[in-house]
């Protein structure tokens, strides 16, 4: 029997804004300097390549969400096709990706605010800690996602980015794309795409709120696909416009605050203030959305006995233990982590996750639509190999840690969960 069409409160304007905001909220602020350092004048193409994978994956997420009519994202889709073990392992890996992502956003929050106020590295770290503590507290108090506020933040954020891009194009000078750096070859574009894929992960947070979306079968596909395409365009034009304003060398040298550098060059102190306000609100909103969604995903996975019972404990319907643990881990990484390593590690995890979703969708897509999934699978596979190769050269220690954690999850998780199941059975006797 078909499930009843959702009568949730989120209509298409809210879904579109939350999808676009979930991506842009932290993505471009943290990714631009990283991708320019890798791809140089081809940074815009890197965003387009990553965007194609995101677009294919978004289509597959939508098809699967409407097929199963249930929240939970990749974890739910794997459970529905009876791949419970893979679902459990992927959910653990995905939660690690969310922790890395929140760390990146907190890192960006601290650096953008600190740069505007001209404070010390210590204060920068304190800002990062402060925003994480504040948002953990709000989540624990049950004050999580206010849709109208988030939509307002998204609107301001997009206007600031579009304005920056327009100012950059008004000062068109292709020399700026390679000023102070060696020109990069065309094949550096996919390397750049691999490095910043996490900039596109935000749209899939909406798959955790399927029941809250009004008439999802009608609005999800056009709304999310257009949001992804719009974000691809935003990223591409900002990647060009910001470099036109600041030059490649400055964007790379201060990649933690690259958009503030561009805005200050364009409008002076008013530009710096505008971009700082946009950045801190956007990154804070992105942290809040990710913390809320990842904590609820933890609860969902724990209820299905693929995470320890620790994660399903709630107070006032808030999975408080998950909020605290995920928040603390993100805070630690934001303080001790390096921007490029955090972004690239998170990108690898989301590339793997999106690739899996594309593979699952193959069995449910109509024959004349399977090419959409194949594009995502092939491009994601290529970009994953490129990113692993790059990390093995520039960040072997970080890659080694990530591989170790992945193996620990894949090999150790089943034994750990069997142990919890045994204890649970003994307690029931």
Could you characterize what this model shows?
GO terms for molecular function: transmembrane transporter activity. It comes from Christiangramia gaetbulicola. It is a multi-pass membrane protein. This is Amino acid:proton symporter (ABT family). By secondary structure, the chain is mainly α. Helix content is 76%, strand content 0%. The protein is built from 16 helices and no strands. Helix 5 (84-117) crosses helix 16 (396-428).
Give a nutshell description of this structure.
With 429 residues, the chain is an all-alpha fold. It is built from 16 helices and no strands. Residues 425-429 have low confidence and may be disordered.
Record the SSE blueprint:
Layout: H1 12-24, H2 27-39, H3 43-68, H4 73-80, H5 84-117, H6 121-140, H7 147-170, H8 188-195, H9 216-246, H10 248-253, H11 258-267, H12 269-303, H13 320-336, H14 339-362, H15 370-394, H16 396-428
